[in-house]
Design brief:
By secondary structure, this protein is α+β, with helices and mostly antiparallel strands. Helices cover 49% and strands 10% of the residues. The chain is built from 21 helices and 10 strands. The strands form 3 sheets. A 4-stranded mixed sheet has the order 3-4-8-9. A 4-stranded mixed sheet has the order 6-5-10-7, sandwiched between helices. The protein has a two-stranded antiparallel sheet with strand order 1-2. β3 and β4 form a beta hairpin. α3 runs antiparallel to α4 and α13 runs antiparallel to α15. The N and C termini lie far apart (49 Å). The model has no long low-confidence stretch (mean pLDDT 89).
């Protein structure tokens, strides 16, 4: 059976085998990750960013197990960490985080789907280790959960290095240097690190850089916004059950939108042919890096949601006299959930007094710099499809007026906004 794979790790490559849990690795829910990209729709600024989510799952299991070994966990717990890391993303559907912003509007979360699919794998996992332990780790409340899900866990350590590698960015993070200082403290077995300030700081900064340099890149945000709107139009036109994405590959979902009776087919055609667009203007909270046709907005991360964006698009396209899908308003979706301080304080560093304390509290300068950077990278952009550009540019209201409307919308209760 094919249970040995080679993936980029530590900036080079390593062979990872699953001889200790072959039927878990070969399970359908795991193997489906080979048909789902880790960075869907990021290929325009980063042509090599088309790596499969399965590679990330392999790396997550590898690093979670490495950390468990570093602190001296028994073999059964190390194997449980390896399996937890391998399966932690099986609840992602086609096009992963891109489409999840839409499915959340209908009450579906990928973490809940992960636990549902994990239940279907119970009899397989139980062949090799305690299924209950794997589930508890992924539920997030177990002492070993940070080995997978914290900023130093297998998930984030892997995607920071893997995504930066495939997008052409250097990484100074070396998990071996971080894990060499790891230990468990106290009866609650709290994960803590000794004498690793520089390594932990590098990890935090590169985690943040992955978001600001890749996930929030304008040329990534705009095609993703087009794709989300395609999903929304297809749902409204057909009553499509978004739960279907959890059994689909990326290519299946793209094909569905191409054949849609709604505007989704037109948007998918634009994406297929390079996701061309014109930016009418941008609203920035911080003007340190202004774009052309930019105004300052008082909006902050988390205040203007996708539902607000849908409502504003409807108004603007109607006023411009162009089809509803001709105008797209992008929003830096999810930036409000990054919480640099929360991530930093999820790391415990042993102080000079020998007592483990939250890393963020011990190094506030690092955290404050990252938190301030949130505002610098928050933006709303008004985007127009090329065939409607000439009409829209002379018909859309001034950017300052659009900003005033957006700020007013953000003050309305979420449920009062019509999409």
């Amino acid at each position: 059976m094919r249970t040995r794979v080679r993936v980029p790790l530590n900036g080079s490559g390593a062979a990872v085998d699953f001889d200790d849990c072959p039927n878990v690795f070969l399970h359908r829910h795991v193997q489906l990750m080979n048909g789902r990209q880790q960075l869907a729709l990021a290929k325009w600024p980063f042509p090599d960013a088309q790596h499969a989510r399965l590679g990330h799952c392999v790396g997550s299991g590898y690093f979670a197990a490495q950390l468990g070994t570093a602190v001296g966990l028994p073999r059964d717990e190390v194997l449980a960490l390896k399996i937890a890391g391998l399966t932690h993303d099986i609840g992602h559907g086609a096009c992963s985080h891109v489409i999840e912003s839409i499915t959340k509007l209908y009450g579906v979360e990928h973490h809940d789907m992960t636990l549902e699919k994990l239940t279907e794998m119970q009899h397989v996992i139980q062949q090799y280790c305690d299924y209950g332990l794997v589930r508890a780790i992924l539920e997030g409340e177990h002492a070993l959960s940070p080995f997978v899900s914290s900023i130093v866990g297998g998930d984030k350590v892997d995607y920071v290095m893997r995504d930066r590698h495939h997008c052409g960015f250097e990484t100074k993070v070396d998990p071996r240097h971080i894990y060499a200082g790891a230990r468990l403290v106290g009866p609650e077995r709290r994960l803590a690190f000794e004498h690793r300030t520089k390594a932990l700081t590098n990890l935090l900064r590169e985690w943040w850089g992955a978001h600001t340099e890749i996930y929030l890149h304008k040329e990534v945000e705009i095609p993703r916004a087009m794709f989300r709107r395609a999903a929304n139009f297809h749902h409204d036109a057909t009553g499509w059950d978004c739960n279907d994405i959890y059994d689909m590959l990326d290519s299946d979902l793209e094909a569905l939108f191409r054949s849609s009776p709604s505007a989704a087919s037109d948007l998918q055609r634009h994406i297929d042919h390079g996701a061309q667009y014109h930016v009418y203007g941008a609203l920035h909270h911080d003007m340190q890096e202004p774009e052309n046709d930019t105004v300052v907005t008082s909006l902050k991360p988390g205040e203007f949601t996708l539902r607000h964006a849908f409502a504003l698009e409807a108004e603007l396209s109607k006023e411009a006299g162009i089809p509803r899908h001709g105008v797209i308003v992008t929003v830096s979706d999810g930036i409000d959930r990054l919480h640099a301080k929360g991530k930093a304080n999820g790391i415990y560093e042993v102080g000079r007094d020998g007592v483990p304390k939250p890393f963020g509290d011990q190094h506030p300068g690092v955290v404050n710099g990252l938190e301030h950077d949130t505002y610098r990278h928050f933006a709303l952009r008004v985007v127009v499809l090329p065939e409607y550009w000439e009409k829209a540019r002379s018909s859309l209201p001034p950017l300052a007026e659009i900003n005033a409307r957006a700020e007013e919308m953000a003050r309305q209760p979420y449920d009062a906004v019509k999409r």
